[in-house]
Amino acid sequence: MLSVVVPCRDRPALLEGCLDALESAISQGAEVIVVDSASAGADVANVAAAHDARVLRAGWPGTSRARNLGTRAAQGDAIAFVDDDVRVEPGWAAALLRCLDEHPDVAFVTGRITVPEHQRDAHRPVAVADDSAPREFSGADVSVLGHGANLAVRRQAFDAVGGFDENFGPGARFRAAEDHDLFDRLLGAGFSGRYEPAFAAEHEQWRQRWTLVGLEWAYGFGTGARLARLRTTSPSLATTVAVSSLWTDGLRTIPASIRDGHEFNVAFVAARVAATAAGFAAALLRP
Question: Which of 23, 168, 211, 220 has the largest CB neighbor count within 10 A?
Answer without folding.
Answer: 220
